[in-house]
Amino acid sequence: MDIFLKGNYKSFIKLQVFKASKKTNKVFINVHGLYAMSGDRGSKSKLLGNKILEKNIANVVQFSSSRNWNIFPDDGTYEKQMQAFEEKTFKEETQDLRDTIDFVLDQSKYLFEVESDKLRFYIIANSIGGTVISTLEDKFRYIDKIILAGSGTKPSDSTKSILSTVPSEKEIFDSTKNFKGELLFLQGSKDDVVPIDAQDKLFESYKNAKPKKVIIEGANHNFSKINDKDKRLAQKLYTDFIVKFLLN
C-alpha cells in the first residue's frame, strides 16, 4: 500500500509498504541517496525489496523523502531532481526518516499485526542516506542491522541542497559510536562520487557495532555498473550480499 506522511519540506513523504507473506516482526526500510527515491520500477531498491519479500526475511518499507513533487521528474532528469530539493537541509531530510520510523512503530499493529515493542528494523541506506541514518542515535535501539552503501562523512565545500548542511564529522561520530548492532558496509572500488577515505572514516566510526566491509570490485558509486557496464551483474552482487547478511 502507498502511505503519505506530512513531510518536513515542501510536501509529503511517500512510503510503499509491503507486508511479508508470513508474519514477522522484522521491518526492512530502504533509504535512498541524494535526490533519489525508493521502490521505483527497475531500481535496485525495488529488486532488493522483492527479494526480501520472496524469502520472507522482513516486511518492506520503501521510503521516499519529502520534496517538491510537482517538479520531481518521472524520467530521471537529474537537473529537475535537484530543483525538487532546492534549499532542503540535512536536518529536514533526517527528520523525514525519523518521522517514518516513528510512524511504523506507532502503526505496527495495523501494518504488520505486530506490537510496537516487538518490532525490529533492518535499514539499508545508500550514499547520503547512510550519513542520515548514522546521525539517528535515538533510533538505534530499534535497529538490529544497518547496511551502508557508498556512504561517507561530510562532503567538502559542497553548495548543493542537503549536502551543504551535513553535520561535522564529530557530530556524526558521536552518534555512530552508540550503535551496537550488526553493520555491513558496501563499497564500490570504482566509486568516484564519495571519496573512499570519507567512506572508511564512517565505517571505522562505528566502534561498538559488529562490523563487516565488502568491497565490490569494479562497482561504481550507486552499484549500477561493474567496470562501466553490466548493470545486471552490479544489481545482483548488491542484492546478494545484502540478502546473505540479513539471513545470517
**Strand proportion:** 15-25%
Count of the domains: 1
Largest sheet: 8 strands, mixed
Quaternary organisation of the protein chains: single chain
CATH superfamily: Alpha/Beta hydrolase fold, catalytic domain
Shape: globular
Instruction: Please give the number of β-strands.
Output: 8
Q: If you compute it from the alpha carbons, what radius of gyration comes out, rounded to the nearest whole angstrom?
A: 17 Å
As residue ranges, the low-confidence spans are none
Residue-averaged pLDDT, rounded?
Answer: 95
What is the second-level CATH architecture?
A: 3-Layer(aba) Sandwich
Strand order of the largest sheet: 1-2-4-3-5-6-7-8
Class inferred from helices and paired strands: alpha/beta
Order of helices and strands: EEEHEHHHEHEHEHEH
Q: Kindly identify the CATH topology.
A: Rossmann fold
Measure the end-to-end span: 28 Å
Tally of helical segments: 8
Estimated helix fraction = 25-40%
State the CATH class. Answer: Alpha Beta
Overview in brief:
Strands 1-2-4-3-5-6-7-8 form an 8-stranded mixed β-sheet, with helices on both faces. The model has no long low-confidence stretch (mean pLDDT 95). It is built from 8 helices and 8 strands; from the N terminus they run βββαβαααβαβαβαβα.
Overview of the molecule:
α1 (44-54) packs across α8 (231-247). The protein has helices at 44-54, 78-83, 90-106, 108-112, 128-134, 169-176, 196-205, 231-247, and strands spanning 2-9, 11-18, 26-31, 59-64, 120-126, 143-149, 182-188, 210-216. The radius of gyration is 17 Å and the shape is globular. The model has no long low-confidence stretch (mean pLDDT 95). The protein has a single domain, classed as Alpha/Beta hydrolase fold, catalytic domain (Rossmann fold), CATH 3.40.50.1820. The longest helix has 17 residues, at 90-106. The two termini are 28 Å apart. It is α/β, with parallel strands linked by helices. Strands 1-2-4-3-5-6-7-8 form an eight-stranded mixed sheet, sandwiched between helices. It has eight helices and eight strands, in the order βββαβαααβαβαβαβα.
